[in-house]
Structure formats: C-alpha cells, structure tokens
Amino acid sequence: DRKIPNIGLISVKSGLVEDYTGDVLKDLPVLKSNDTAVTSLIKYKEFDELRHWHSGRPLTEEYERVQCTADAKSKDPAGRRQIQKLQAFRHFYGSTLEDTTSKLIVHQKDVSGSANAAVKKTQKKHKSKAEIIAEENNRRLRAKEEKKEEEQWKALCMRTEKEIKADVTVGINKLEKFLKTLKSKSVKFSVEMTGLSACLEVWKEHCRTQGNKDKDLSKAVQVMRRIHILLEKYQDMLEKPHLEKLTKCLRYLGFENLACSLSGQVRESNDKKISNYAIRVGPARFQLQYMDYYLLREERHDPDPRVQHFIPDTWQRELLDAVDNNESAVIVAPTSSGKTYASYYCMEKVLKASNEGVVVYVAPTKALVNQVVGTIYSRFTKKLPDGLVVCGVFTRDYRHDVVNCQILVTVPQCLEILMLSPRCQKWAKRIQYVIFDEVHCLGGEIGAEVWEHLLVTIRCPFLALSATVSNPEHLTEWLQSVKRYWQRTENRIERSSTNSEKNFTRKYKGKSKVQEQKQSYRVRLVLYEERYNDLEKYVCSLKSRDFLIEHCHPCAALTVNHIENYGIPSDLSLSPRESIQLYDTMVKVWQEWPRAQELDPEAFVSFKNKVVIKKADVRKYEQELKKELSKWIVLGQRQKVDWLLEHLKPKPVDCSENEKWKHFASFVNKLHEMDKLPAIFFIFNVDTVESAAKNVFLYLLKKQRLIQGLNVEKERNRLRAELGKVRKIVGKFNPEDTKKVNPSKMENIVVLLTKKAQLEKRLKGLTDIPSSCTYADPKAVDEDTLRKIFYRLRFERRGYLHQRLALRGIGYHHASMASKERQVVEMLFRMGYIKVVTATSSLALGINMPCKSVVFAEDSVFLDALNYRQMSGRAGRRGYDMIGNVFFYDIPMPKVERLIKSNIPELKGQFPLTISLILRLMLLAAKADDKEDAKAKALSVLKHSLMSFRKERYSQILKIYFMFSLQFLIKEGYLDQEGKPMGFAGLVTHLHYHEPSNFVLASFLVKGLFHKLCKPIKGSTVFSEDVLEKLVLILANLFGRKYLPACSLKYKHTFCQSKVFLEDLPEDFAEAVNEYNTKAEENFAHFLLTTAKLADMEQEYRLPLSKTDFTSKSWHGSELASYLMDTTKSVSAISPFACVSGMTDNDLFLGASINKAVLRSLGINVTNCPLLYLNKYDNQGRRQPLNAYALDFYKHGSLIALTTDNWLNEGDAYYALKEFLLIIKSIGTSLSELCDDPNDNVLLAFQQLGEIYTEKLYCI
C-alpha cells in the first residue's frame, strides 16, 4: 500500500468562509504560505463574471441565454403580434381551467392613498347619503332578480316534476343544474320542496308497481337527499307545514323514529298503507350504505368578505389570515380541497399594493407552469406603466418578461439561477411572496436540493403547498428556524445601518415602497385531512376473456403483524359503505363480540335518531371501528382479525402481460359501459403510454368498420370523387354573371348546387363517427372551438395523430410531448370532450385534470406510496362526481396492499452541497453589489440544510466538505486564496447542472486540447466534418451520457442507420479525464479521512438488516467480534465489515471502492465526489456502453432512426437533442464572451457546430 500523504489545507481569507467554518477550522491542519502546494497554484487573473476575461465587455446573465418567446419591451411589430396571440391563447386556456365568472379585475391603486382611505372608512360611524342610496338600489335590484327567478321557476315547475317522475336520475340532474343558476334562497327553497314532493311520488309509485319484490332503493335515496338538503341549508325557512311534509316523507320511508324526533311527537304509525312503502332497513344503515357519498359535510354558512364566489372553510380562512399578516405557511391538504386559492389571493394582494412588488410561483413541471399562467391570465388584469406586465414565465426552454412582471411563474432550477445571480439581487429584493407548489418534491432524489436552496435564500414570506407530506411538523420547525435566522440577520443589519449610511439596508428600505410592509417571521402550519370525495378501490383481472372487477376494502391491505407493529395508517380512510362492510364482517367473524350492539349503526351514539348523518359523524364511527379492530389483537383475538382481513380481500386471477395488453381496449370499453369515464390510465413507460392509446383507437375503428360494413370506404371514396367534379364545375360559375346566363344553363347550375349539397350531406353522414364508436362527447365542445384547438396542432410532428385520437375521445400525455400537444389533451379532457387519457406521472403533480376514475394499468418501481397518492388524488371531480374510483388493472395483489397501507416517506432532506454550488455561492458573495445581503444568503444555504437540521454531527460533516471543496476549486484555478472567482469559473457555473462534466470541459480548455483539435481547412475558417464529428464525440461523452444495458452489445452489427454505441474519448482527452479524476479522488479521500472521527462507531459495528451489534456484551469473547476489532486497528476511515475483505484507507483513493469501504454513519457516498467515469460496469462486471444518439443524429439527421436503432422514444430523443444543442450554444456564447479574438479556432468551431446542429434539429 502506498503511503497516504499528510492532509493540509490552503488557507482562504474570506469572511464567508470564516463565518461558516470558524468552529471547525481550528481543528483542521493549514499549510504554510511557503508550502509547495501553495506556491504551485495556478496563476490566473481574477475572473470577473460580469466582464469579459480581457475586454471588459459585459457577460450575459444565464437567464438571458434562455430563448425569449415574446417580451413586453419588444418594439418589433411581429413580436407584438406574437405577444397578442400568446395572450389570447392563455386567456382561452385559462377559461378551460375554471369558470370565467370568477375573473378578478385588479385596478392600479396608489398604496398610500388606499391605506388612508381605509383608515378614514373605519373611522366613520354613520353612513353617508350616497351609501344609503347605493344600498337601497342594491335591495331593489335583488328584489327584481328574485321576482325574475320566481317567474322562471313557475314556468319550469310543472315540466321539472314530469321529468323527475319520468326518470328520477335525469330529472334530478336537471333540477340541480337549474339550482346552480339561482341566487335567491327563497326560490331555491321552493325548488327543493317541489323536488322532494316529486321524488316521494316516484318512490310511492315504484313501491306500488313492485309490490313484494325487491325495491330499487336509489329512488328512496333521492327522497332522503332532498330531506338532508332542506334541513341543512334551509333550516331557517322551514315552517310547520314544511316540517309536517318532511315528517310524512320519513314515515313513508319507514323511519318512524326519525319522524318522531323531527316532529317532537312520539307516535307509532299503524297505517298499513304507509307501511307498504317502508324500506325495511334502519335509517342509520340506510344512510351509510345507500346514501354513502351523498352524505353532507360540515360547512360554514357565514360569508368571508375577502372571498367572492364561495364560502371558505375555517382552514382556508386561516390561509387568508396568514397572507393578510404577511406570514409564511405550510399547507398540507388533499388534492382538490382548495388550497391553491390562497395562492391567487396572495397574488391579488400584491397586485393591489403597488407596481413594484413581485410574487413568484414555483411549480415542479413545465406543464404546471402553463396551467398556472393560464389561470393568472383568466383571473387578473391590471393597467401598468409601459414595459411592465402582470405575468412572466421562466423555464429552461423559454422565458418572457422575467424581471419586468409582477407575477413570475417558474420552475425551481430557474428561480435558483435568479436568486444566486449577483446581478439579479436588486430584483430579488422586490419579491413579496414566493409560492411553492408541490413542496414535497424536496424529498425527491433528483433536484430536491434546489427546493431547499430556495426555501432558505428567500427573505420574504412564502406559501408551501402539498397534498403529500408525512412529517409536516418537522418541515415547519425547520422552516421556522430559517425564518429566525433571517430575523436575527435583519435585526443585525438594522442596528448596523444606524452607524453607517452606506449600509445596504438603508438603500433597501429607503428607496422601495415594496418593503414598507411589516414582515412577519412566523411560519404557520395548516393541516386539513378530509378529502372532498371518498375514494373506492377496485381490483381488476382477466378471467376467461371477461373482466373480474372486485371492490377492494382498504382494510384488506392490512395484516395482523402490520397492525400490531405500526397500527392502522392514519390516511387509510373508509367510505361510509366500507365502514358498514367492516362492521358486518366483524359481527360475522366474532358472533360473541361484546361491543357488537354498541357499535351497531342504529345504536351508535353519533347516529341514533339522527335525521341528517354527516361525514363527520361517519368519521367518528370509522375511528371507533379501527380502534376496536386494533383492540381485538390486544385482547388475544389475532386469529379472528386474520379471518376478518382475509374475508375482506378480493381474489383476483393472474394473467400474462401479453393477455393484459391484448384486452386493454376491451377493459376501457368495460369502464365506459360502467359509466366510469372520464378516466386517466397511469402507465410508467412512454412507449406503452402511446401504444395503449393507439390500441384503443384501433379497437373503436375496427368496431366502426364492423357496424358500417366493408363497402362504406368505397362509397366514401366514390362520393368524394363525384363531389370533386361537381365543385369543379360550380367553381367556374361567377355569381355576378347571373343576368348574362341563359335560363336553361341557370337551371343546370341550380341542379348542380342542389346535388352538391346532397353529396356533402351524404358524405358527412358516412364520415361522421357513430356515437357507439367514440368516447368523445360532442356536446362538450362546439365545432368552432374544436377547430380552434386543433388549429394549434398544425405544425406539430404528431398533430394529425392527436387530432384523430381526440375525435375518438382518446389522448395520451407525457413529458416528452410538445407543449402544444399536451395542452390540447389537457383542454379537451377538462372540457369533457376527451374521456380516455393514458399518461405517465406527468399528470401526477398538480395538473388540473380531475376525472371520475384513475386506473393503474402497469406495475413499476416508480409506482410507490407517494406516486400512488398523488395519482389517485386525480379521481373524484369536485362538483361533478360524488365519489372517486381507483382501479388496479392486473397489478399484483401484494403490491396493491403495499400501496394502500404504506406511509409516505418522511422528508429528511438530501445531501445539499455540490462543488458547483459552492463555487456559485462564492461568486455571489464576491461579485454582488450588496455584499451583506449576498453573504447572508450564502450562509443561509450553507447553515440550514434539512438533512442537518438538529443534527450537529451532519453540520460538522458539511462544513468539512465545504472546506475540502474550496481546496479543490483553489487547486484547479477557479478561486484564489481570498475566495474570489477566476479562470473559467463563469463557464463552469453556467453549466452547473452538468457537474462533473462542467469541470472536465474547463480542464480540456486549460490544457489546450480543443485548440489542438480544432484546426480549420487550410486557407479558410471552416472546419472539416472529421473535426466537427470528433467535437460532437467529445461533447457527447461529457453531456450526452445515456447508458445502455450491457446485453445490448450483442446487437452491435444489426443497426441500419446509427452506430448506437458511443466510441471512447480520443486518447489525449481520456488522459486529461483520468488526471482530473485522480485529483478529485485524492481530495475526496482526504475529506473522508478527516470526517472519520465524526462517525458513529457503535452503528458501524452493527449489521444494517439484522441489527446484530458486535460491540454488545453477548458477543464479548467471540472469535468473529475479536477479528473485527483487530482488523480495524490499522485503518481510520473504513467500515469494519469492509476491513474483513482486506480493504484499507488506501481504497478510499479509488472511486470504484468508495461505496464499499466508506463508513455508513457518515451518510456520504461516491456521488458526492465529482468524478466522470470513462467506463461503467453493471453488477455482473459487464461494461455498459453509452448511447451515441447525439453523434448519430449529427451524422444522419433522422429522428426515426433514433427510435428504431437507438432505443429512444421519439419525444425523449427530440428533447435530449434539444438539450444537447443548448449546451453547445451555451459553451459557444461563453467562449465568445471570454475570448478577445473573434477568429479563435475553438470559438469558430463551436459556432459552426451550433449552426449545423440547429439546422439539422429544426429540419425534422
């Protein structure tokens, strides 16, 4: 083994470094200034990110390099037209998201003036004459409106009664639609009473017809529904005659006890005629089992003046209070519960306050960005000074009005660019609120650290929204600690500003109206657990070519051991009918159950003699049953619990994967027959998403051909040909020549026009899709709107396919589609035209695509507890569906059980630092105009990671990682000893999301490898194909790293157009990578050796799965334990169990060995080291080749070839190529700004490559 070199750190004289790592610096060895490691540092000029390296010209901001689609500052007429078209579409798109009547018009107001007016208004004690007149006018208008509605109801009353009696379901639906149009409570009450009378007559007639046969209790449900509504919503309007009517209805249903409790008279009904109409089911059981999802919820009836169109619940008012008080809030509430309303209230508040304030809405996906922008356009308008707009957008693909808008909608990565940019700090101070939608994304594996960075760098209040956070208290406590840090920082700056007029706080507070509002540092936690609609689960399997669809009771997912060890999950909720099912099964399993009578629905304390049983009452019953189920295990009735759970379990039948997909279209049709559409079918493979939608289309097309016969196509072609001839003749006739044409010729023309109309009519009849061969609802969208929507697809590669699918009521949705294609599917689905959508998880995060049913059509490793809850949350459209349906289509039963009973993973945070991030923080601290502000932000990022919250050991590890990262940056020439950026620091930070490739690229430039490669054709500035192909090869090895499985190598000589497997880097470039890796490995190994003292050695000697602890007394004297102890004496930073295999500290200097050797309790792995592996091997030691898609496309320019040869989905391939092109352009732009010589060969080569690649990509 080689001798491990002594660890020594190069000192860094930086206030940021000293403030952050001061407590650990004293324990770390520091090199003297005359040490060779210090004297041999790369000598660069200081590199100013805001200037050219030499010339002094400004360097463009990273956000300015993103394509600008349209900007309010644009003076170009074509650009202005583009803005107008975009705004028109967004208004239209927004109208599909919510009712346009909810649009809010926000006028510009003077802040001080409005504030004074508000004060004066509160001081008034008497109403002015004008106010009295206005109130009188309003009263008169309301009376007039009420009279108009009364007349309208008189005209419809008789017809509505007849419709209800003819078909109670259709009639009641029409009655409820009419009710939604009414404003007068008295008219609504009259309508409800009429509906009750009609429903009672329907029930009585049904009973007379059926006699002693089984009755359809759905008709009785409609009677009870009207009684519930009248007693709950119109209690103040019920008089004695009305109460007598309700009592009579209850007696007809056989609910004598309820009738007595309502009338207050104890009287037994002996009327045999009435008893013939009785249901023969107890009132409590009837309400739970048959009314189920019709049961009412607890709702407030007192309006809130801040909300115009609905009465908010208590928890929603708490959100509005938080916004009014400039407080931050963490909001955890189910999908479709109304949590996002606070976001738009927040936006409205900032828009009303001034023209300077900014609200930032952070969405996790581009699809959600588009949705939020559409909603903003439909809700808000405001007159602003020239150059300012209400809404701006910033994503990786496009941007507009980023710094000149009042509401910026963006994704986390793009907001981080702005927050850490030295030149954008002035804009950042204008931010009044930040709204984080789907904040649980900070628990993900990719990009989670960016959410953390944003939450800790913003100084303003925030709203953090999510439906799936399992430890919201912990999250809130962490965020509150961050706010306390900012409060201390603000107070310190406030104190220092009194001593120095140059302090940034004096500028910050003196110049902007925006910051005059008093900020609160409180972080509220608002929890709401009740879903608006219950979800019921079904397990679907294929049996003898028929579908077996069984209800899956949530408790069926449990086991005795799970209940005993973990309890019943808190979010495992039951519908009312499922609660009854659980009770009945408990009685059946344990007939001597002591509490059977007490928990009988008719005897349960919350139900007894209660006319209106509400959801809250059922929740109490559900909780009592769950407690009793857990208690059975405590009482020693494990076997009975086991029997009960087994009795509830469905018994699906297994079938092959091929059979499942072969009959997928038939399964969709089965759901259509069951009236369970619209539905979203979640599938986790992009190709399968598309093929499944096409299969459903082909199924309907085949069905149409069977109905219409084989001769229809021939007839259509014949009619088209004949119609073409007629049109050609008619087209020659000029209407202005009517007087010149002789009567006989005119007569022929009239005949031809008549024939043309007849042919068009016949052709339309043959062309129109029969209603039985499409799932589309033609009534949902008129033809003009449909034509307008399809017009957006005219230039899209798959526009025609999407149009054909949509006409059959089918669509598919995934992230690799063009945004216009996704928007068309989203709009038509929301409008009710499309009823079947196959999708990946692109529809799981916050997209407003509510549906009646959600179907999990494919098992996948991505189908976990979190995704299950996010996706199933789409089911149950508020205001449309009374219940949501979740179907598992041939998903293995053990997986279904895990999904239902598993808890969502807790948010614990990811490793928050990367070397690129540290460089960006150092650049921010060094180059920002406002040094104090920048330093405070950088310290907040470094000090407040969620991973290290209340874990001092992890805080120490992060500080040491920070110090060793600085050593790497200094030795590689990106920072000087004062922590100031130099060399290629700017280029590296612009490509920060491609670490470690960004550092490797810079090392190639430093070594002059690109200058050796990029030699133009003699006598010109043009480069040969060979040079450019080598350049693409190098860039593909750095930035186009998509691995293929090792087994794919056996197909090497079978491809038609692509080479598929990417060649290795040229030898000199590969040597440079190896040299870079060696330096990174050495630095990282020194870090691991230094942090070894922080490891929890008790945990290190414990096996992770069995928890066997070799330090415990039971293992004292054991030969194995003694051997373990002996082998670790010669090492300092290696896991004891790794030592057994002969590993030593030297193995930490090899990247491939780090994960096997490292101490587990440190929470560190090789991904925290910026290594670029030239070769990657699978678990069997086989080399995995890189996909050569970027180079192959450069050679043949065919997207189809990438799908057939390179195993890429077409959409994925397009976006991967687009990303690759953006990298080429970004590097070219950076080089042009860093280089004095516009004729530099490397610069020209990158520019030429960018032009050629752009031409190839946009020609497909």
TrEMBL record:
The residues forming a coiled coil are 127-163
Keyword line = ATP-binding, Coiled coil, Helicase, Hydrolase, Nucleotide-binding
Which PROSITE patterns does this one have?
HELICASE_ATP_BIND_1, HELICASE_CTER
A Pfam short name: DEAD
Query: Which segments constitute the Helicase ATP-binding domain?
Result: 320-487
One GO cellular component this record assigns the protein to is:
cytoplasm
Q: Which GO terms describe its molecular function?
A: ATP binding; helicase activity; hydrolase activity; nucleic acid binding
Please list the residue ranges annotated as the Helicase C-terminal domain.
745-919
Q: What is this protein called?
A: DDX60 helicase
Q: Which organism is it from?
A: Probosciger aterrimus
**Top-level taxonomy:** Eukaryota, Metazoa, Chordata, Craniata, Vertebrata
